[in-house]
Amino acid sequence: MPTPNKPKMPAFNPELKKAIAAFGKENTPQNLNIVLNHLVKSPLLTPVLFDLNGAPAPKPGPDGRVQLPKNTKVSFVMVNSNEGKHYYLGFTDWEAAHTWQKKAGQGRQIVALRFDDFANMLQKNQEAAGLVLNPGENSLRLEARLITSVKKQKDSFTEMQKAREAAQIHPGDKVTIVEPTVLADALLDPICKVLADAPGVGSAYLQIMIVNETRKCYLLVLDGPKDDKLFAAVAQAARPYLLSREQKMNLTITTSVSPLGQQGMRGSEPFYRKGVGRVVEDDDE
Q: 51, 74, 196, 207: most buried by Cβ count inside 10 Å?
């Protein structure tokens, strides 16, 4: 029987620990990517020091949790490399944390953090060089620049997922597709560069889609098979232009075989053709 009012422990990911061990045995980009893919989704434990500024130590509440006073200062324990660099600590589970505590003779408090927490801490603390996972015999050191890069990719993917969800069309929605007044070079040229390396795409069309007369977004139709990696690359290429607009518009990407794609191509001319690149229509005399 579970203990009443016992605080819920974070759900650790055993695959992260296995991935770190596999990378230690075979240092390859593929194994590192596996580690990073698990890392962004896994909670980590880290040792901290609490400075209560003279306040009495708080007692656990009915759920076993401790509410710290507002003015409590939290200091994260760090380790130093042989080069004198400072690194935050992250443990994949309680076993790894307790093993380190015994070896280091550290009786610190342990808190749970997410990947985003460490990424934000590294961004704010210029003296921190990165993160060490499971310090000890099977440790993995990740530099701050790598974590920052992974955070940007993660945020970009999250934004793309939100945009896709926001652009979803539901039964009963009124969809109107119109030609854009201006085909902005800053939007289309980066997309064409990505499509030039996608041999499966024969042509591409750009429209504006209006849903229920209130929600507006760009509609990009690719004449080729569905390819999530290509969709992500195109979205990333279009992102600087989309973010630069005062009235932000998302980008919905579909293929020519979908009903939405068929509607988007109807009566429209492509802005991109395979083997030609960007298609620029001359104005009528």
A: 207
Q: Is 169 helix (H, G, I), strand (E, B) or coil?
A: coil
Q: How confident is the model at residue 5 (pLDDT cuts 50, 70, 90)?
A: very low
pTM for this one?
Answer: 0.60
Helices within the chain (DSSP H only): 14-25, 29-39, 94-104, 115-124, 144-166, 185-195, 228-244, 259-265
Q: Which tokens hold the place of 237?
A: 């290429």
Say whether both 218 and 149 belong to one domain: no
Q: Which residues pair with 75 in a beta bridge?
A: 49
Percent of the chain with pLDDT over 70: 83
Residues of the domain holding 136: 14-54+69-155
Is residue 41 a part of any domain in this protein? yes
Is residue 91 within 8 A of residue 45, CB to CB? The reply is yes
Does 27 fall in a domain?
yes
pLDDT of residue 118: 95
Q: What is the pLDDT of residues 138-185, one digit of tens each?
A: 889 999 999 999 998 888 777 767 766 666 677 888 888 999 988 889
Residue at a domain's end among 155, 186, 219? 155
171 burial level (CB within 10 Å; 0-12, 13-18, 19+): exposed
Place of tokens 């009915």: 62
Instruction: Report the CATH number that the domain containing residue 83 is assigned in CATH.
Output: 3.40.1350.90
